[in-house]
Specification:
It is built from 28 helices and 26 strands. By secondary structure, the chain is of the alpha+beta class. The strands form five sheets. Strands 14-26-25-24-15-22-23 form a seven-stranded mixed beta sheet, with helices on both faces. Helix 26 links the parallel strand 25 and strand 26.
């Protein structure tokens, strides 16, 4: 490791006011200017900023001051360890409460101003009206309401960055000061407008924070799922401890109705456990000695003793929280478009505002016909107003109607909602880039063993010779194989048990190389093995079974012949069976327009049999683990960079990385999950279809949000510049724009709730 690498320190800042990607861009830009900063990563969902600094000293204060100079308060700075999610949620709640308090403090005087303004303008002049409005508007614009906004705007200007607070300050301060001129010269008062703009700005901030909280609630909901305490056996006694004090190896006692405190393995008892929070599967899963259990799942009926295997940040739930947080903080390539726009947006808006002010001061009569036209259908347009009044109204309207926040929220809110939905349904999407890439996938590559099939042999068929019953044949086979630990032997014994056939005692058991086994069951000498072994042993009547043997082997089964006292009695076939949902999943992939390819190390015959059963389009058999990467590359050469792969084993990890989108079956190896862009916790192939539907829908929402936010600004700013939008209408429209982007993202929840209720795989 180099000296530079070893001296890098990691910091995590909590910035509650970083509410959109526009804000995040300002924070990133500010921190990147600092000497020694290697990397800055922002996450507006959790309001965290992760900074890598090349320095041995503690840079906490330097980073805090830089962000505060950019106009944003810093709630916490941590060095090394990541922020505790519970603390982050508490900070977020405090920020929301602060926004609510500021809104109330500004809202009461602003409401009183409105109550005075209406009769003063339309019925009877109110004595001392101007003085009352000046007094009521002052705390709204300058003190409890607007102070934080102006402070942030000043910091932003002195830091050579322009944020949304700059526009609001420019939209509220000049109108208030211009309104004071009314004490000297008779003129229109603008102080009401200043107070209203600030109040609506604070209302927008509060509603935005509340709505964004709904969009990013996935992590908070996950945080509430975990158990708070655990019953643990120590020194022969049962203690109740906080979950944070658990150690690997602790024996936990879990009673019916209890949450499983942390990941572990059952050492005593049996029960059904509700794992829906982890997998999305509503049917409780049977657990017995040796079964793994996941922290935060619920024990339904039996008493279990469980050995803790993973605690703290290593647990499944903690990993899910990290993956969701990582996805919500990631950036989508399309976001580069929004970044370029928002980076130049505020300076452009200020320029347009100044040009509008100058145009109305210099050429009011040239522009006035526009107002006469607009007054026909816009009640707030007053063509009779003086030129300076129209100039101020137009300039302020441009400032307050501009909304970089809507553009900045377009991508992150859709990612927040999409990744949250995925987490609830057992689909963990690691990054925004994966979402954008996933939507364009044309080829889905499936590993066979453990992905399409169960990954373990099972008894599939029993063929008895003439004069022999299937039950007797299976009884003999199970009795002899019960003495063996070979996977095929276990499959035969388990299959017999499932069919109600019991195994008997066997004597004289012996294994004949790797080709078969022999033993005595009752009075019969039984030999089980392949045809070559039985021919060598002089077994008769084999020819009558050859047709069935060839048929079963053609289907990819492993077939053994059972012989008794020198005569063939029948066949027992074992195969790695196809998962129940695999055919349905492949049909769903075809509906999405995907070309489905199976790559496997198995022989061509076995691979073709599975492919035909589930409807695979293309088979590549006999591919060694190291050859899977080359196979993916060849598909990418044929179909472009639009290839996804699903796998579950250690040998799949390199191929998952090579694919444009790697999808790991959650029940598989940790290394495969780490290599993947998408993880299916439930381990069902139908999740691939649902994940692709989710990625397409999420990306559609991102595009819709960007189009709406861009179209809103393109339409609204010119209207404001020519005097057709009153500033108070503008600030309401600005708030509505941000809320509409968040609301559109939240519609994803409704769509996937319908899919969940309907069940099955749906076409996107």
């Amino acid at each position: 490791m180099s000296t530079i690498e070893s001296s890098i320190s990691e910091y995590e800042l909590t910035v509650p006011g970083m509410g959109s990607d526009h804000c995040a861009g300002i924070v990133r830009q500010t921190l990147q200017r600092l000497e020694g900063v290697a990397e800055v990563r922002t996450n507006i969902a959790s309001h965290h900023v992760s900074v890598s600094v090349r320095s041995g000293a503690d840079d906490s204060q330097r980073l805090r001051q830089a962000v505060e100079r950019a106009g944003y308060d810093v709630a916490a700075v941590r060095r090394g360890a990541a922020a505790d999610e519970a603390d982050a949620a508490e900070i977020e709640a405090q920020y929301l409460a602060q926004a609510r308090r500021r809104l109330w403090i500004a809202g009461v005087p602003a409401t009183l101003i409105m109550l005075l303004m209406v009769p003063h303008m339309f019925w009877q002049p109110v004595p001392g009206y101007l003085a009352m409005v000046a007094v009521l508007a002052f705390p709204v614009v300058f003190l409890f309401g607007g102070a934080a906004t102006h402070k942030a705007a000043w910091r932003s200007l002195t830091n050579r960055t322009l944020n949304m607070d700059v526009l609001i300050s420019l939209g509220s301060l000049p109108p208030y000061f211009i309104g004071l001129v009314g004490f000297i010269f008779p003129m229109t008062s603008f102080m009401e407008m200043a107070a209203t703009i600030m109040t609506f700005h604070l209302l927008g901030r509060y509603l935005e924070a509340k709505a964004k909280g709904r969009a990013s609630q996935a992590i908070r909901r996950l945080l509430t799922l975990g158990a708070k305490t655990a019953r643990v056996e120590r020194d022969g006694t049962e203690l109740e401890l906080p979950v944070g004090e658990l150690q690997p190896g602790d024996i936990m006692v879990i009673r019916p109705g209890d949450k499983v405190p942390t990941d572990g393995e059952v050492v005593e008892g049996e029960s059904h456990v509700d794992e829906s929070i982890a997998t999305g599967e509503s049917v409780p899963v049977y657990k017995e000695v040796g079964s793994p259990v996941i922290g935060a799942t619920i024990n339904k009926e039996g008493r279990l003793r469980v050995r803790a295997t993973r605690v703290g940040r290593d647990t499944f739930l903690a990993q899910v929280i990290r993956l969701v947080d990582q996805a919500q903080g990631s950036r989508v390539p399309i976001q580069e478009f929004a970044d370029r726009m928002t980076g130049r947006f505020v300076p452009l808006v200020v320029l347009i505002s100044l040009l509008s002010l100058a145009a109305w001061l210099l050429f009011p009569e040239t522009l006035r016909p526009i107002l006469y036209w607009g007054a026909q259908f816009l009640p707030w347009v007053n063509p009779q107003a003086d030129g300076p009044v129209l100039a101020i109204l137009a300039a302020v309207a441009v400032l307050v109607i501009a909304c970089p926040c809507a553009l900045g929220l377009a991508t992150p809110t859709a990612l927040m909602v999409g990744s949250g939905i995925g987490a609830e349904r057992g689909i963990l999407i690691r990054s925004g880039e994966a979402i954008q890439t996933f939507k364009d996938i044309k080829v889905m590559v499936l590993d066979k063993t453990g992905t399409i099939t169960r990954g373990e042999p099972r008894l599939t068929e029993v063929v008895a010779a003439a004069g022999v019953s299937e039950q007797h044949l299976l009884h003999l086979a199970a009795s002899v194989e019960n003495a063996s630990e070979h996977p095929i032997a276990r499959a035969i014994v388990d299959g017999a048990s499932e069919r109600g056939v019991a195994a008997a005692e066997v004597t004289g058991f012996r294994s004949i190389g790797a080709r078969g086994v022999a033993g005595r069951v009752g009075d019969e000498q039984i030999l089980i093995g392949n045809r070559r072994l039985l021919v060598e042993q002089g077994i008769t009547a084999l020819e009558s079974l050859d047709e069935s043997l060839q048929r079963l082997e053609a289907r990819g089964c492993t077939v053994v012949i059972v012989a008794g006292d020198g005569r063939a009695l029948g066949l027992v076939a074992v195969a790695d069976t196809v998962k129940g949902e695999s055919a349905e999943a492949v049909r769903g992939m075809h509906k999405l327009g995907l070309h489905v390819v199976m790559i496997t190390g198995d022989n061509e015959r076995a691979a073709r049999a599975v492919a035909e059963e589930v409807g695979i389009d293309e088979v590549q058999a006999g591919v060694l683990p190291e050859g899977k990467v080359d196979a993916i590359r060849q598909l990418q050469a044929r179909y472009g960079n639009h290839v996804a792969m699903v796998g579950d084993g250690i040998n799949d990890a390199p191929a998952l990385k090579q694919a444009n989108v790697g999808i790991a079956i959650g029940a598989g190896a940790d290394v495969a999950i780490e290599a993947a862009d998408v993880t299916l916790v439930r381990g069902e192939l139908t999740g691939v279809v649902e994940a692709m539907q989710l990625s397409r829908s999420t990306f559609d929402k991102i595009v819709q949000n960007l189009i709406w936010a861009s179209a809103y600004n393109v339409a609204a700013i010119p209207m404001a510049a020519v005097g057709l939008l009153h500033p108070m209408i503008g600030v309401i429209a600005m708030t509505a724009s941000s809320l509409s982007v968040i609301g559109n993202s939240l519609l994803l929840k409704r769509r996937f709730a319908r899919i969940g209720q309907a069940g099955g795989v749906h076409e996107a």
